[in-house]
Write a structure and sequence with these properties.
Layout: H1 2-13, E1 26-30, E2 38-44, H2 53-57, E3 61-66, E4 72-77, E5 80-85, E6 88-94, H3 97-116, H4 133-137, H5 153-161, H6 177-187
Bound molecules: iron/sulfur cluster.
Length: 194
């Protein structure tokens, strides 16, 4: 069954041998915890990225994967967060356009690398969902001290669940390495990479 599936997907991929770097992209203001202005790069591509997602799900640090007719995938790429839809790429956060353009180019290179290696990767179709904010909240200090820039620990938990903030934004978490590790595991993050 899995073998047939792999053959099927390889056949579809025969029609798509490269994801092309879009000539244009949008540079949109977005909210984040950094002191400097934050931007998101958004680009449209002709190729169907939904075909690539099961292969990325098997190789990248995926935070969220919702297969289906309108698939969505969110994963970490270097220090950026990437959101893919069938024909759309969003990448954040950036403080300037040049860094955003360079990261988009590197991301397309990475996607093409996965695409070229697809015959050696067993696709993973298993959905991944972000953990509930309350589960995250239980691992926070729960003092509502506001040092992270959020009004409450619960607000911080919600933003962690959405991937808009990182655990490192709470300066008190590192005082409790046990909970910090549980938090990284819950979020599907690599504590050594952040
Ligand atoms: S810095 Fe940490 S303890 Fe303070 S409000 Fe933010 S999450 Fe809660």
């Amino acid at each position: 069954m899995i073998h047939a599936c792999i053959l099927g997907w390889s056949w579809i991929f025969f029609l798509m041998d490269e994801i092309r770097l879009p000539e244009e992209f949008e540079f949109l203001a977005s909210a984040c915890h950094l002191a400097e202005p934050c931007y998101t790069v958004r680009a449209l591509v002709k190729e169907d990225l939904g075909m690539l997602m099961p292969f990325l799900n098997a190789t990248a640090k995926v935070l969220q994967y919702e297969p289906g007719e309108e698939p969505v995938m969110i994963f970490r790429f270097d220090r950026f967060k990437v959101a893919l839809r069938s024909h759309e790429i969003s990448l954040a956060p950036f403080s300037d356009r040049k860094t955003g353009a360079e990261a988009l180019s590197m991301l397309i290179e990475f996607l093409n690398k996965v695409l070229r290696k697809r015959d050696k990767i067993a696709p993973n179709f298993t959905p991944r969902r972000r953990p509930p904010a309350f589960e995250i909240y239980k691992l926070l200090p729960r003092t509502n001290c506001k040092a992270c820039g959020e009004m409450t620990c619960m607000a911080f938990a919600v933003k962690l669940a959405l991937g808009r903030l990182e655990p490192s934004s709470c300066p008190f978490l590192k005082k409790d390495p046990g909970n910090l590790e549980k938090l990284y595991n819950l979020l599907g993050l690599d504590s050594t990479a952040v």
